[in-house]
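Here is the promised in-class demo. Please do not try to memorize the tokens; focus on the logic of going from shape to residues.
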């Protein structure tokens, strides 16, 4: 799924960096300036919720889009409390992800 998301976003003109481990993703987020971070909630190392909480304390925090296969209200509440911009559910529709990224960047959906 990571490869499919990365390829789709690259083809749409987004600059993409990927990491499959939450701890390494957090390190990458601290080293580079991102507008948006897309993360699964369940990751090895830091999970997506911890990632959202941590980057939310940065001087210029990126918007965080979280993805989950467990769409329960508790998940949405925890994600909102962690500072997530939006939570998308699996199976992930890639066009909805691209639209959410544009919304997070303040560009809205493109025609």
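The designed amino acids, position by position:
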């Amino acid at each position: 799924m990571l490869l499919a998301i990365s390829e789709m976003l690259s083809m749409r003109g987004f600059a993409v960096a990927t990491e499959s481990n939450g701890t390494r993703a957090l390190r990458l987020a601290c080293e580079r300036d991102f507008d948006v971070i897309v993360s699964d909630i369940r990751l090895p190392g830091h999970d997506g919720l911890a990632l959202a909480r941590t980057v939310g304390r940065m001087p210029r925090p990126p918007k965080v889009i979280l993805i989950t296969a467990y769409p329960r209200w508790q998940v949405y509440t925890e994600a909102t409390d962690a500072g997530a911009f939006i939570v998308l559910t699996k199976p992930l529709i890639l066009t909805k992800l691209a639209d959410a990224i544009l919304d997070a960047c303040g560009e809205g959906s493109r025609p």
